[in-house]
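Re: the multi-chain job from yesterday

Posting the exact lines I submitted so nobody has to dig through the queue logs.
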Amino acid sequence: MTALTFVILAVAMALFGYRLCAGPSLADRVIGLNGLVLVGMAGIATHAAHTSVGAFLPTLVAVALVGPIGTAMIARFIEGRRR
Amino acid sequence: MIGEFLALVGATLILLSAIGVVRFADPLARLHALAKASTLGVLLVLTGAAVNLRDLNDITSVVLAGLLHLLASPPASNMLSRASYLDAETAAGVIDEHPDPRVRPKE
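And the result, structure tokens for all chains:
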């Protein structure tokens, strides 16, 4: 079941990566990047639960804070760019 | 067992939102697809991991990451959707039925 979870996450990572490379506007690229951060968080949590090794879980806390902050920063950049 | 099932359901939600992000037409619709997965999908995966883990330190890290993500992710999605709504270049093909007169005057 964990292997199936990783396969699903890999397919989702490929789709988000396509949107990151092909997105016509900057907002689309940020959406793809945000999705990649989500897949990374889910992968770290699933791997830690599978192997019962919690060494990477503080990284999970840092990523959970840094990802939305980066998204909000680029949103402010898009908003201020038009003036 | 139940933790692995929760992680599988969360990963399926993330995959569905990835399909939506690839197939939808404009940034607002893509963000609508992504914002669901970034709250519910990731929280389901983290809940599954917290059920499976045994060490109290690890469980605390997972719960803290879930709480911080639940606090920080929806405002970020809101700011990005607001920015892409205000950006004239990306919102060119979107039909706006209730335009905000403060930011976009009616034609």
